[in-house]
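C-alpha coordinates in:
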Protein backbone atom coordinates (compact mmCIF):
# COMPACT_ATOMS: atom_id res chain seq x y z
CA UNK A 1 0.00 0.00 0.00
CA UNK A 2 2.96 2.30 0.32
CA UNK A 3 3.27 2.59 -3.44
CA UNK A 4 -0.40 3.51 -3.81
CA UNK A 5 -0.38 6.27 -1.23
CA UNK A 6 2.77 7.79 -2.74
CA UNK A 7 1.14 7.82 -6.19
CA UNK A 8 -2.07 9.40 -4.92
CA UNK A 9 -0.13 11.95 -2.85
CA UNK A 10 1.96 12.91 -5.89
CA UNK A 11 -1.17 13.32 -8.03
CA UNK A 12 -2.78 15.44 -5.29
CA UNK A 13 0.26 17.72 -5.11
CA UNK A 14 0.19 18.04 -8.90
CA UNK A 15 -3.51 18.92 -8.89
CA UNK A 16 -3.09 21.56 -6.19
CA UNK A 17 -0.18 23.04 -8.14
CA UNK A 18 -2.21 22.93 -11.35
CA UNK A 19 -5.08 24.72 -9.58
CA UNK A 20 -2.73 27.52 -8.52
CA UNK A 21 -1.21 27.83 -11.99
CA UNK A 22 -4.63 27.66 -13.65
CA UNK A 23 -5.99 30.31 -11.32
CA UNK A 24 -3.09 32.63 -12.07
CA UNK A 25 -3.17 31.86 -15.79
CA UNK A 26 -6.84 32.73 -16.13
CA UNK A 27 -6.49 35.85 -14.01
CA UNK A 28 -6.56 38.88 -16.24
CA UNK A 29 -7.57 42.44 -15.80
CA UNK A 30 -10.12 42.38 -18.59
CA UNK A 31 -11.00 45.16 -20.92
CA UNK A 32 -12.38 48.36 -19.48
CA UNK A 33 -14.83 48.70 -22.36
CA UNK A 34 -15.92 45.06 -22.12
CA UNK A 35 -15.61 42.28 -24.63
CA UNK A 36 -17.96 40.86 -27.20
CA UNK A 37 -18.87 37.88 -25.05
CA UNK A 38 -19.49 39.97 -21.94
CA UNK A 39 -16.54 38.53 -20.00
CA UNK A 40 -14.96 41.24 -17.91
CA UNK A 41 -11.97 39.32 -16.62
CA UNK A 42 -10.99 37.65 -13.40
CA UNK A 43 -10.17 34.12 -12.46
CA UNK A 44 -12.16 31.29 -14.02
CA UNK A 45 -13.37 29.71 -10.79
CA UNK A 46 -15.03 26.56 -12.10
CA UNK A 47 -11.73 25.06 -13.25
CA UNK A 48 -9.91 26.12 -10.09
CA UNK A 49 -12.56 24.60 -7.83
CA UNK A 50 -12.64 21.40 -9.92
CA UNK A 51 -8.87 21.01 -9.64
CA UNK A 52 -8.93 21.70 -5.90
CA UNK A 53 -11.73 19.17 -5.34
CA UNK A 54 -9.87 16.60 -7.44
CA UNK A 55 -6.78 17.23 -5.34
CA UNK A 56 -8.80 16.76 -2.15
CA UNK A 57 -10.22 13.49 -3.48
CA UNK A 58 -6.72 12.21 -4.25
CA UNK A 59 -5.58 13.36 -0.82
CA UNK A 60 -8.41 11.39 0.75
CA UNK A 61 -7.38 8.26 -1.17
CA UNK A 62 -3.74 8.80 -0.24
CA UNK A 63 -4.69 9.19 3.41
CA UNK A 64 -6.70 5.97 3.34
CA UNK A 65 -3.86 4.01 1.73
CA UNK A 66 -1.35 5.51 4.19
CA UNK A 67 -3.63 4.55 7.11
CA UNK A 68 -3.95 0.98 5.83
CA UNK A 69 -0.23 0.69 4.99
CA UNK A 70 0.70 1.36 8.62
CA UNK A 71 -1.41 -1.57 9.82
CA UNK A 72 -0.48 -4.35 7.41
CA UNK A 73 2.78 -6.11 6.66
CA UNK A 74 4.81 -5.09 3.66
CA UNK A 75 3.64 -6.68 0.44
CA UNK A 76 6.16 -7.96 -2.13
CA UNK A 77 5.55 -4.93 -4.36
CA UNK A 78 6.35 -2.60 -1.47
CA UNK A 79 9.74 -4.15 -0.72
CA UNK A 80 12.93 -3.46 -2.65
CA UNK A 81 13.91 -7.16 -2.58
CA UNK A 82 10.40 -8.44 -3.42
CA UNK A 83 10.09 -11.08 -6.16
CA UNK A 84 7.20 -11.49 -8.57
CA UNK A 85 6.70 -15.09 -7.48
CA UNK A 86 5.99 -13.95 -3.90
CA UNK A 87 2.79 -12.28 -5.09
CA UNK A 88 1.47 -15.46 -6.72
CA UNK A 89 -1.38 -17.44 -5.27
CA UNK A 90 -5.04 -17.03 -4.57
CA UNK A 91 -6.31 -13.49 -4.96
CA UNK A 92 -9.74 -14.03 -3.49
CA UNK A 93 -13.05 -15.81 -3.90
CA UNK A 94 -15.27 -14.94 -6.84
CA UNK A 95 -18.69 -16.52 -7.20
CA UNK A 96 -18.74 -18.86 -10.21
CA UNK A 97 -22.45 -18.65 -10.96
CA UNK A 98 -24.12 -15.60 -9.53
CA UNK A 99 -26.98 -13.74 -11.19
CA UNK A 100 -26.81 -10.79 -8.81
CA UNK A 101 -24.38 -8.71 -10.92
CA UNK A 102 -26.91 -8.81 -13.75
CA UNK A 103 -29.59 -7.64 -11.33
CA UNK A 104 -27.41 -4.77 -10.16
CA UNK A 105 -26.71 -3.75 -13.76
CA UNK A 106 -30.40 -3.91 -14.66
CA UNK A 107 -31.38 -1.86 -11.61
CA UNK A 108 -28.66 0.70 -12.36
CA UNK A 109 -29.93 0.94 -15.95
CA UNK A 110 -33.46 1.60 -14.67
CA UNK A 111 -32.11 4.28 -12.31
CA UNK A 112 -30.08 5.77 -15.17
CA UNK A 113 -33.15 5.96 -17.42
CA UNK A 114 -35.03 7.62 -14.59
CA UNK A 115 -32.22 10.16 -14.23
CA UNK A 116 -31.95 10.86 -17.96
CA UNK A 117 -35.67 11.49 -18.41
CA UNK A 118 -35.99 13.03 -14.92
CA UNK A 119 -38.66 10.64 -13.76
CA UNK A 120 -38.04 10.88 -10.03
CA UNK A 121 -40.25 7.87 -9.26
CA UNK A 122 -38.31 5.65 -11.70
CA UNK A 123 -34.99 6.94 -10.33
CA UNK A 124 -36.08 6.17 -6.76
CA UNK A 125 -37.33 2.72 -7.77
CA UNK A 126 -34.06 1.98 -9.57
CA UNK A 127 -31.95 3.08 -6.61
CA UNK A 128 -33.98 0.97 -4.20
CA UNK A 129 -33.53 -2.00 -6.57
CA UNK A 130 -29.77 -1.33 -6.68
CA UNK A 131 -29.66 -1.45 -2.88
CA UNK A 132 -31.63 -4.71 -2.75
CA UNK A 133 -29.56 -6.32 -5.51
CA UNK A 134 -26.34 -5.25 -3.80
CA UNK A 135 -27.53 -6.77 -0.55
CA UNK A 136 -28.41 -9.94 -2.42
CA UNK A 137 -24.90 -10.11 -3.87
CA UNK A 138 -23.31 -9.36 -0.53
CA UNK A 139 -25.30 -11.95 1.42
CA UNK A 140 -25.48 -14.59 -1.32
CA UNK A 141 -23.35 -17.08 0.59
CA UNK A 142 -24.97 -16.36 3.97
CA UNK A 143 -28.48 -17.49 3.12
CA UNK A 144 -30.38 -20.09 1.11
CA UNK A 145 -28.89 -23.27 -0.31
CA UNK A 146 -25.39 -21.81 -0.45
CA UNK A 147 -25.28 -21.18 3.28
CA UNK A 148 -22.47 -23.27 4.84
CA UNK A 149 -24.80 -24.71 7.51
CA UNK A 150 -27.41 -25.77 4.90
CA UNK A 151 -25.24 -28.75 3.90
CA UNK A 152 -25.00 -30.27 7.38
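Residues out:
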Amino acid sequence: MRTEYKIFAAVAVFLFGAAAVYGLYTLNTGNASGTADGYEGGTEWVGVVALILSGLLCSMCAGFFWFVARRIDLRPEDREDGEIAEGAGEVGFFSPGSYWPFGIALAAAVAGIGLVFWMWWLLAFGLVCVIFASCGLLFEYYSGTRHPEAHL
